[in-house]
Amino acid sequence: MTELIKHEPTTIYIKPPKGFAALNLRDLWIYRELVFFMIWRDIKVRYKQTMLGALWAIIQPVLTMLVFNFLFTRGVIKVQSDGIPYPIFSYTGLLPWGLFVAALNSASRSLTSNHNMITKIYFPRLILPIASVLGGLVDFVIAFIVLIGMMVYFKVSPAWNVLWTLPLFLILAIVTALGVSLWLAAINVQYRDVNYALPFLTQFWLFITPVIYSSAGFSEKMQLAYSLNPMAGVVNGFRWALLGSGNGPDTSLWVSVTISFLILFGGLFYFRNMEKTFADTI
Hints:
The protein is mostly helical. It has one domain. Helices cover 67% and strands 0% of the residues. It is built from twelve helices and no strands. It is globular. The model has no long low-confidence stretch (mean pLDDT 84).
């Protein structure tokens, strides 16, 4: 009779990953084709059944710029524009601001509007807000072409370092938009109040961001406090990169950059922490 060999039981402890490993960003690379598909889908759906289609990417910032130009150059209030024609000054600020607001409006609803996908199949939920944010780059490029035409018309030359500085500030705008969008998208799954609060939030945020005015006249202490708004660094950076307006990278800018990345990393961890509840809550 064969003698049975006894083995001591083995206990395997499974611990959740900590730190950046918990974000599991490798899944985004594995599902990269889905990211491109979702971006393309968002672009197609955005102007579906519209008469003007992608022309809205031009009409919206141009009309806003015309209103600002009327109010702050011909109206009672006179706004400093750092020696730059005000239409160019305001439109340059509206470019990153428009990208930011469009990202927030689209990405904050990206989870709730795709609830059928979330409840039926597995894929990294981060793809939805990321695709919404990156999809806005198409409108940004179209609006940027209009800015080039305006600069030719007003005979405004671009800054000498525009080719290598502007892409950096565009990345900063995307980082800021994605960071805020991750927070809003995750919160919106549980509290749909985000849909009602978002218009007020973006309107208030516009007034504390130097889109329609210059922050150059602020005191040094005020500049530092102002830089706690990450979009202030983005807008000022765009004007400096494109038009040479302002002092360029300084302490205030680095404060805005730091705040932007803190919002992004905080949003990533919060989103991942709440992700396991999305399918049940939504």
